[in-house]
Here is the input.
Amino acid sequence: MINVLMIEDDIEFAQVLSEYLARYNIKITNYEDPYLGLSAGIKNYDLLILDLTLPGIDGLDVCREVASKYDIPIIISSARSDLSDKIIGLQIGADDYLPKPYDPKEMYARIVSLIRRYKKVTAEVEESPAEDSKFRVDDKRHQIFLEDKPLTLTPAEYEILSYLIQQHGFSLSREQLVYNCRSIKDKGGKSLDVIIGRIRTKIGDSSKIPKYIHSVRGIGYKLLG
Here is the structure.
């Protein structure tokens, strides 16, 4: 689960974005009041989405304060189209600037990209197995074990399976898996099903009666067992 702090006074907009991102295990906690947002325990979040037109304070001032105190990626999400706002925002600590209106899919892609860069989600996978999982990842040796038996995997297969193990039990979108697999050159995701199929063969799984990798209709995949 990715926890996102959002400071946005457009309640309807925040709700629409929250509902969309929730499908990809991204939880948004929004504050209309920027002062409440600043006191919301920022260090406990993985990323900040920040509007610029806020009641009582300019969003750029909020950005400046957060960037000076916390190591958290910041995406400015604003209808203000002045180029100087974008330049200043990036200069004072914002990592990205997404002008409104935009497709929620683009925000999703930027969140995943920034989280990956900050290593909040794709940090080194622990060597200990995921809770209640028969899989174990030894990231230092680039090796995955199933019931203590080593698997022979290609780089892409290793990245996909290790990410599924890390997010054990969670439904992951196709986009999420593709963006977290650097070995996949086809970012449109056409090769993902092929890679999943190969992994299933190597772990003795079946797409019709899955034991480990389950297809989630309309979303993507999740790992159980």
Summary: The radius of gyration is 19 Å. The CA atoms of residues 60 and 132 lie 45 Å apart. The chain has a mean pLDDT of 86.
